[in-house]
Amino acid sequence: MSSRNKLLIRPVFLAALLCGAASCRPPAAAVAPAPAPADIESAQWLEGVLGEISGERALRLAGEFAGLGPKVAGTPEAEAAAGWLAARFADAGAVADMEVFSDAAPAGETVFRNVVARVPAASGGGGAEGLLLFAAHYDTKSGIPGFVGANDSASGVAVLLELARAFAAHPLPGTEVRLACLDGEECAVQYGPRDGLHGSRRWAADLEAAGELPRVRAFFLLDMVGDADFTPTLPRNCTPALLSRAFEAARAEGVRGRVSLSPGPVLDDHVPFFERGVPSLDLIDFEYGSAPGLNDYWHTAEDTVDKLSADSLALAARLALRIACGQR
Description:
Layout: H1 12-19, H2 37-50, H3 55-66, H4 76-91, E1 95-103, E2 110-119, E3 130-137, H5 150-169, E4 175-182, H6 198-209, E5 216-223, E6 233-234, H7 240-252, E7 260-261, H8 271-274, E8 280-284, H9 310-325
Parallel strand pairs: 3-4, 3-5, 5-8, 6-7
Antiparallel strand pairs: 1-2, 2-4
């Protein structure tokens, strides 16, 4: 299996991506109009929710989750990890459901568990209720001795828990938030219809079957977001408007120079939603190694908590919140 399997993608996306290439660039600076009362309210909400984020707490949670050891999909260790996640969501003030399902896999029919937390919309929002989705995978790659996935699973999980805490303290008027820790992102042999992306494919299909996709304002994926040298490279197979908002959010955080557009598309858990027309963004830093531009820690026993940074985890959460705030 290629060591670049997260970068494999079907060519069907490329034509659509080229059509939206211009809007992927950061927008030109403009004079902002005087804020309307609704804008002021939104700014106050954003400051409040950003204030809930703690990089130190996220790093501690990432360390605890990585400390559970490998979490290969379909194993008792993965089941125990799902229970840990449900308990931590409850600690954060969100109610989590364990969505258990079986799916065909290279080793045969396998049991997977998505852990989905919900934060209801704030009361009194009025109007039709929208839905914001956030996700990260929690399973670890099989067949790698000593691999605990500190960055490639635990970092995204830790940021989701921080987001759950923030949204529970500051619910969005008119918008429900769901945060999913997805199982089975990693492929066992090679990505395909029966290998990899099991949790995201199932979650997207369930939401579609329930008629809820029209409510979804955006889907945000957090993957490999804890590297001490956090330099997100956003895949081209994301919604152009959200890519633009990501650059705006990075500018607001003072890190515009650290966020760039990937040279190509990425196969990841956002794809089942992107394929269904849901506005989607994959916040990922695929350069994770011993020197800038390298990826030699990925899928090795070197992916350990000492490579993570509280500042990076906090920044990932803050970027996600700033991007999502514009989707109200």
